[in-house]
Amino acid sequence: MTAAAEQIAECGGRGQSLRVRGGGTKFEWGTPAGDPDVVVSTAELDRIVEHNEGDLTAILEAGVPLARAQQEFASAGQMLALDPPLGAGAGATIGGVIATGDSGPLRHRYGAPRDLVLGMTVALSDGTVAKSGSRVIKNVAGYDLAKLFAGSFGTLGLILQVVVRLHPKPSQSVSAIGRSGDPDAVARGASALAHASLEKECVDVRWGGGEGAALAQLGGETAGAQAEAAARILADAGLEPAIVEDDEELWTEQRNGQRSSDRAVVRVSGLQAELARTIRVVESLGGSLVGRASLGISWVTLDPSRIGHLRRELAPFPCVVLDAPREVRASLDVWDADPSPLAQRVKHRFDPAGVFAPGTFPV
Amino acid sequence: MAHDLIEKLREACGRENVVTHPHQLRTYESDGLLRYRVTPRAVVLPGSAEEVQKVLRACHEAEVPWVARGSGTGLSGGALPVEEGIVISVNRMNRVLEVDLPNQRMVVEPGVTNLDVSKAAGPTHFYPPDPSSQIVCSIGGNVAENAGGAHCFKYGFTTNYVTGLELVLPDGELIELGGKELDRPGYDLLGAFVGSEGTLGIATKITVRIVPVPEAVRTLVAFFEHTSNAGRVVSDIVAAGIVPGAIEMMDSLAIEAAEGATHAGYPSDAGAALVVELDGSEAECEHRFKEVEKLCEGNGATSIRVAQDEDERQLIWKARKAAFAAMGRVSTHYYVQDGVIPRTRLSEVLERIDELSKEYGMPVANVFHAGDGNLHPLVCYDGHTEGEAERAEELSGKILTACVEAGGSITGEHGVGYDKKRYMPRMFEEPDFDAFQRLRCAFDPAGMANPGKVMPTPRLCGEVPGPYRQHPLEAAGIAERF
Ligand SMILES: Cc1cc2nc3c(=O)[nH]c(=O)nc-3n(C[C@H](O)[C@H](O)[C@H](O)COP(=O)(O)OP(=O)(O)OC[C@H]3O[C@@H](n4cnc5c(N)ncnc54)[C@H](O)[C@@H]3O)c2cc1C
Ligand SMILES: Cc1cc2nc3c(=O)[nH]c(=O)nc-3n(C[C@H](O)[C@H](O)[C@H](O)COP(=O)(O)OP(=O)(O)OC[C@H]3O[C@@H](n4cnc5c(N)ncnc54)[C@H](O)[C@@H]3O)c2cc1C
């Protein structure tokens, strides 16, 4: 950690621009900017420092691949409840996942990286190495700087180490899915699931090629019975229900829907009640969608030429462009956001040398 | 100057909403922590965000520091006034602006009480963070303190439920962070604001997430000879992958006091009581509840009471919720502490507290959110005897040291405020404070928002543009530039 922090301080001192690289699976996201002077890799920061089984917490260096950490946790029947797509060779690191604020279907129950990081140590461009938070699941001492760094795309400082909260892995899971070609029915089913009193791990929605589905994963000892109840809810909403016992592939597909190698992926921060309309817009633009039904967040895959249409139709909901060819990202504002003076002041205070990934973030 | 400011406040909010009479000011001298008192210069009660803006602009121009205040139930002196400063009470801003059930959101003004938020969401939905003070405390105060409650082990804290904020920055600018939607592009300034203890600005509108009411709730209270038995049950429950809505523990002294006050039927000779509440789907609840009963029996429960109906459930909770207030029956004075430890260190820390209690000759009752490892040791002392308050405080500080040494925190939910800033160096070092200060300076470069709270030593923001001018706090010798 010391070596990485020293490298940061050196760049800061010399005014050399730098980009932090974790697994490099989402390194391309953001506004394309000129090549940085230096790429700082977290590959050496790969220690699982602690796994405190009884306390359901762990301390990880930022470069630990999420997949490796999950293996370790699974051996104790536990998990870090973050399941974003892991990219090529499952290379995504814990630092990268937190820096991008990336998440998957489990977000429904457990929240985003911001909600699962208990403490963080960062290196700033003036050589300061600072920690915030703590190593226990409940703490309100000091400012919650981990939230600020979660989703900051490596523009404030280098995340060196994090303390995360773990959860018990449900002993079993069963899913219920309801299919329909009617956007209203899909939205109705998704909303009914969202408002139902079941122990839901995930509540998702998908649409593509004139057909869609609402689906939920139920966990725990009575997962089967609860999935039956979820299927009945979906049937009542007018969908074609089915129970899926062996559901891993179902959810892998949902995650895969968040990435694309040849088209554009746009993340829409919408609302649950707008789901039917969102689906119709996506359908009219020849796109497809996966999303967290109750949270209102969707990932839309479509031809890059239709991004402008999508934004106009869905305004004022922010539509952030994630995967897209570089020339497309260079031709538009990927963030769909104006910089705010307050955010600029934050950036200036934390990165006074202005070296962290200049030009890649809306500040 | 001073007089000018008061006039401006009157113009902004109406004469009747500016309090300057010494008698009336007394109401605002302390928050829930009565040990500290400071009389403010004036108290102003704005009725809208625009009025808050006018007030903050006036304070900014006059370089007068201010403290925001909700219901004043805080237990760390967070809303303690600053000498010669203004207190800005948001009590009049208490409207529920919108209940949006389809999107599971509510929009409220900061002065709405926590309980009223949940009530407005009912009967189909509720707002999970439920501090024991929920009948009185304000949602704005909850945001500022990142308040927790008995149901936070399963459901999370205030920070996990606030999705949008309208706030006024110390220079009077009105901004919005987040909204009903999640993941707006840009830094998560909202996440940084929650828990900032009134030092970054004043929240004037709050958007929260609400969730469906669980289908079933099952509650029991089990009694044990010793807290270590109850502690083992907590560990076993967690190890079994059961996530209760709440797990709360009380030790013998707390039981004795609570039973005396509530007659809830807790055996007064019990060494520990464990309240376990499961909620969720009917089937899952039923199944898991049997497991919990078995774990209690397996760890030597002397008796178990299962709530048969809502009345009985309320009775079980009544004893737990009354525990703080009931201590008055056992001791004339007591000191509420709020430390956190990793759950696995529970028995050793309780032993250490017991040792300290004997060493000081002061009884310490323990009430805690056992799932979270959040302890509330209540240090009892005789306030009429000279020096006892100081000794109780010293003992209380040693308990915090034990918590931090076990890998925990000096505060789980009550905040640092004024009272605990001196303990901050036990958790953080100079570079950490430096990073905190960067955030504070981005929001409040002039240092007018609740100065003297949270940070162990007051500090000012460097790089103030323009020629050097002495800051009022510098002049008064209570802060220096770093
Ligand atoms: C702008 C952008 C948007 C993206 N959107 C999506 C999406 O919607 N869906 C999806 O599946 N994937 C997306 N990605 C890819 C996402 O980055 C990956 O899911 C994964 O989280 C990255 O892990 P990694 O280790 O491969 O990180 P990298 O791809 O190496 O880095 C990702 C980002 O995090 C920063 N970073 C990495 N490690 C650290 C650290 N230790 N400290 C500080 N900053 C660090 C990098 O500078 C970079 O900005 C996006 C990436 C970017 C840059
Ligand atoms: C009997 C009792 C039991 C309690 N139980 C719990 C519990 O279980 N869990 C828990 O977390 N706490 C508990 N508390 C502590 C307290 O109730 C909480 O901290 C609560 O959130 C404070 O809310 P308030 O409205 O009273 O805020 P105040 O005490 O008025 O203010 C608290 C802080 O918030 C700031 N503030 C207030 N309003 C705003 C605003 N609109 N914008 C910006 N800053 C603002 C103030 O400046 C101050 O720093 C308890 C207190 C008591 C007396």
Notes on the structure:
The complex is a heterodimer of chains A (363) and B (482). Chain A has 363 residues and is of the alpha+beta class. Chain A is globular, with a radius of gyration of 21 Å. In chain A, a hairpin with a 5-residue loop joins strand 6 and strand 7 (129-133). In chain A, strands 13-10-12-11-15-16-14-17 form an 8-stranded antiparallel sheet, with helices on both faces. In chain A, strands 3-4-8-6-7 form a 5-stranded antiparallel sheet. The longest helix of chain A has 14 residues, at 223-236. The mean pLDDT of chain A is 95. Chain A is built from 13 helices and 17 strands. Chain B has 482 residues and is an alpha+beta fold. In chain B, the strands form 5 sheets. In chain B, strands 12, 13, 14, 15, 16, 17, 18 and 19 form an 8-stranded antiparallel sheet that branches. In chain B, strands 5-6-10-8-9 form a 5-stranded antiparallel sheet. In chain B, strands 1-2-4-3 form a 4-stranded mixed sheet. Chain B starts with a helix and ends with a strand. Mean pLDDT of chain B is 93; it is low at 464-469. Classes of the chains: A alpha+beta (363), B alpha+beta (482). The interface between A and B is large, with 83 and 83 residues. The structure holds flavin-adenine dinucleotide (2 copies). Residues 19-27, 29-30, 42, 62, 84-85, 87, 91-93, 95-97, 99-100, 102, 153-154, 158-159, 258-259, 265, 267, 322, 357 of chain A line the site of one flavin-adenine dinucleotide.
